[in-house]
Amino acid sequence: MPIVKNDVSVTIPFPESWAKIAIESLKEQFKRRFEDFYAYSKDILMFADPFIVDVEGLWEDLQLEIIDLQSNNDLRIEWAQKNKFKLWCRAVFADEASFWLNRGKVRMWTKSGKKRSQKTTKHSPKIHIWAAFSSFGTFPLCIFRQNLDAQFFVKILEWHLLSQAEAFHGNRWFLVQDNDPKHRSKLAQQWISEKMPNNVFQWLSQSPDLNPIENLFGWLKNQVVKQHAKSLAELEKCIQTIWDSLTPEFLEPYWKSMKRRCQMVVENDGNKIKY
Prior knowledge:
Layout: E1 2-5, E2 8-11, H1 16-33, H2 35-39, H3 41-48, H4 60-70, H5 73-83, E3 91-100, E4 126-134, E5 137-138, E6 142-144, H6 150-169, E7 174-176, H7 186-195, H8 212-225, H9 232-244, H10 248-267
Parallel strand pairs: 3-7
Antiparallel strand pairs: 1-2, 3-4, 4-5, 4-6
Helix pairs in contact: 5-10, 6-7, 8-10
Organism: Oopsacas minuta
Domain Tc1-like transposase DDE: 91-235
InterPro entries: RNaseH_sf, Tc1-like_DDE_dom
């Protein structure tokens, strides 16, 4: 740092060591003053963005508050207005569903006043699927029988989602899935942040009425029941065959319904919609 004294320029070195000590001291003071803030930062973020919170993992006294926020009509309206004109043709809708063997409704005629008993399986065998679709068509179906945990869910994303999404949409797509604990697990979020950080979409919790894949699953289950599968192997084959037959033209009304769903939320003052 040059200083002029008696017409003589003298350079005084910058007190680097003193500056480092001063900065560290300020950092320590800042840390102490904001300790409470850091301790409650997760809670603050939780209320700032309640739609990404897993209610089941909260303390009891917070669960009802978050559920109220997630079901808040004003927030649903805000979300719907924000996403009404989103390019839903780039969305990849994904979720899991379960299918039971011999779980269709049993109807029978009996004489008036007489009871008729029918033996049924108390715990019917079942299989699960992870499925996804977009405007380009269906994604490879994952059929499994074990319980779905975070580790297996990450493998599903790696094997069945990522490569197909890129083949369909390049990097111009976003994933739509609910806030199930497995979807929001630390392992899943870490994988998503590393592999597809630009393809994440904030979805409303407690809002199956907005997700068209729920309607598609309802249709799929009705078609499967009509096939009267006699074994789990037949059930798997039936689900796979029907899923593989779905065309982009068939799926178009599902993803295109998102604009109308958003409109209905606004028109219905944020209440649940019948879709």
